[in-house]
Amino acid sequence: MEQHRFEFAAGAPAARRVLVGVVGSGDLEVIIEPGATGKTSIDVTTSVNGYGRVWDAQLTRVFSAEPRAAMNIRIHDFGATPGVVGMRLAEAFEALAQAGGKEPT
């Protein structure tokens, strides 16, 4: 198991907590909680050793394009592909927006 930490600039805190996904073969779980204004922190726990650069590229693509709400995100990965990572993050952002969390898409 490896653990990675990433930080990105953000706006105002997310309004609520969101949980999507499940830890299981080839999948992952994303937990979002409101963060400190101006910063999103992401902690990734993965079963795939040596995948840090892939995580960095994937998360940079998602979080550098436009400012998002400030969040503390925990990702528990069980070998998910980058496509599944993107899908679960999009699902989490959609759930946050539907709950009035004002997460821009």
UniProtKB/TrEMBL annotation:
Keyword field contains Methyltransferase: no
Q: Report the leader peptide range.
A: none
Any one Gene Ontology cellular component term annotated for this protein: cytoplasm
Q: What are the UniProt keywords, alphabetically?
A: Cytoplasm, Phosphoprotein
Q: How is it modified after translation?
A: Covalently binds the prosthetic group of malonate decarboxylase.
Q: Which locations, inside or outside the cell, does it occupy?
A: Cytoplasm
Instruction: Name positions with the PTM O-(phosphoribosyl dephospho-coenzyme A)serine.
Output: S25
The question of whether Coiled coil is a record keyword is answered with no
Q: Which Pfam families does the record match to this protein?
A: ACP
Q: What is this protein called?
A: Malonate decarboxylase acyl carrier protein
